[in-house]
Design goal:
The structure holds two protein chains of two kinds. In chain A, a hairpin with a 2-residue loop joins strand 7 and strand 8. By secondary structure, chain A is mainly β. The termini of chain A are far apart. In chain A, strands 2, 5, 6, 10, 11 and 12 form a six-stranded mixed β-sheet that branches. Chain B is mainly β. Chain B contains no helices and eleven strands. In chain B, the strands form two sheets. In chain B, strands 2, 4, 5, 6, 9, 10 and 11 form a seven-stranded mixed β-sheet that branches. In chain B, a hairpin with a 6-residue loop joins strand 4 and strand 5. Classes of the chains: A mainly beta, B mainly beta. At the A-B interface, strand 6, strand 10 and strand 11 of A face strand 5 and strand 9 of B.
Chain lengths: ~110, ~110
């Protein structure tokens, strides 16, 4: 079974600085997708960024980018120019190409210090 | 576009009582998911529907949990009888394009079992 591990339960960063959240996963499949979801306090979870495993180029969405290391099964999220609104739980998630469900990591709570 | 609607937002019950949660997905989304998120953990899939058929219920405790999606739209998740360890947030999500894997989440229903 696929597993997703986030080894940082909590992270903090100064406003306007850069922070990287780590994620590793375990799979024997070659076709899969990886995601970072953001869950603000008492708000619904929203998609931050998505990476298809077959793509070598790292995905980027404005201030959010990933470092996808397929051989190492690593998928980290970099947030540049951190803003107060970035404070949330961040979940790394895996989806098999042949399945539809997401498997989530344990989450990392990100605090932004003004 | 209206998002995923869930109710109630909060529910407190005593153990051995029953509870039901309701979800209305985004219009046109064929796939509906119920996830259980225990405090401090990532969401865990309970059941996945494709239209009104069950795709995956392998992690649903069927002795006490049940779910249905009549007419392939709204869904209800029921717990009877509830146990203390069922205290969690129950997240409903829906998706349209299965290949992209993006799930749209509701705000969740927080259950406290005393």
């Amino acid at each position: 079974a696929q597993t997703v591990t986030q080894s940082q339960p909590e992270m903090s960063v100064q406003e306007a600085e850069t922070v990287t959240l780590s994620c590793t996963y375990d799979t024997s499949e070659s076709d899969y997708y990886l995601f970072w979801y953001k869950q603000p306090p008492s708000r619904q979870m929203i998609l931050v960024i998505r990476q298809e495993a077959y793509k070598q180029q790292n995905a980027t969405e404005n201030r959010f980018s990933v470092n996808f290391q397929k051989a190492a099964k690593s998928f980290s999220l970099k947030i540049s120019d951190s803003q107060l609104g970035d404070a949330a739980m961040y979940f790394c998630a895996y989806r098999s190409g042949g399945a539809q469900k997401l498997v989530f990591g344990q989450g990392t709570r990100l605090t932004i210090n003004p | 576009e209206a998002g995923v609607a869930q109710s109630p937002r909060y529910k407190i019950i005593e153990k051995r009582q029953s509870v039901a949660f309701w979800c209305n997905p985004i219009s046109g989304h064929a796939t509906l998911y119920w996830y259980q998120q225990i405090l401090g953990q990532g969401p865990k899939l309970l059941i996945q529907f494709q239209n009104n058929g069950v795709v995956d219920d392998s992690q649903l405790p069927k002795d006490r949990f049940s779910a249905e999606r009549l007419k392939g739209v709204d869904s209800t998740l029921k717990i009877q009888p509830a146990k203390l360890e069922d205290s969690a947030v129950y997240l409903c999500a829906s998706s349209f394009r299965q290949a992209t894997g993006e799930l749209f989440f509701g705000e969740g229903s927080r259950l406290t079992v005393l």
